[in-house]
# Entry
Amino acid sequence: MGVTISLMNQKGGVGKTTLAVHIGVGLAALGYKVAMIDMDPQGQLLVSLALDSMGDDDEGIFNLLVNGYALEDTLRQVPEDRFKGYVEGRDSGTLTLLPGGQRTQLAALDMQLRGADFNILRQAFEPLQTENHFVIVDTPPTLSLFTPAILGASNYVIIPTELDRLGIDGVEKFMGTVINLSGMHSAQVMAILPTRTKPQTREHLDRAAELSTKFPGLVWTDYGITESTLWKEASDAGLPVFGYAPAHQAADQAWRVVGRVLEVVQKANG
Ligand SMILES: Nc1ncnc2c1ncn2[C@@H]1O[C@H](COP(=O)(O)OP(=O)(O)OP(=O)(O)O)[C@@H](O)[C@H]1O
Ligand SMILES: [Mg+2]
# Structure
């Protein structure tokens, strides 16, 4: 049975999608079978994985939950060249995308109106968990009707955050949400992951210390992702940093996060 990891933070622009893509691509490059699910109505995983739009078929979540499509008819196989060859001596695995788009919001409303319970996503995604080693879920920068359902479908949550006042405020709010909804899920916060960091600054050090005091053991201060224009350049080129600039610090930091995620999951599963 695979492990489902959601990238969540109700604050926008903190690197959820970027990290989701790099964790997904990195694990697939290492040989794992990976499914990615786009729960964000912005639907950016499709573009981030350099897949062509297929019109109505881009609305995978809506088609699955409302239009009654079979799960396999909502999935897109990501071509091997998007993740192959980044790790020498390793055969790549597979990468599958369940895309989402603007109508994901309607699917949430539909769930509410029908009185469907929050287990709806866990049940809908279960076959993906059975068939893959990892399921990586990208989520929107807002709380939505789906928030408890996403938590309910997740084994782990990673919370990317910037190390500034608003970032810490966002983490506190989101941790509050996780706790408030604790009766509805058993997701575990794997990491509060500093992103877009400016490691040499006073604020960085102070905020990192503040977060670690507030959330002992959860802040991955040694695995932070430094602010760099390379991330956007790679994204504009339609490539993960692994392929765009493999020798750059950004690629190294992304691999370290992938490695750490693997370590935590492997340790938990004996
Ligand atoms: N470490 C970084 N340094 C600089 N830019 C970054 C970094 N990580 C991500 N970015 C850029 O910041 C922007 C926002 O990143 P991303 O889309 O991953 O955030 P998000 O949390 O998914 O946003 P949203 O809340 O809108 O879904 C993108 O242009 C991305 O390329
Ligand atoms: Mg995003």
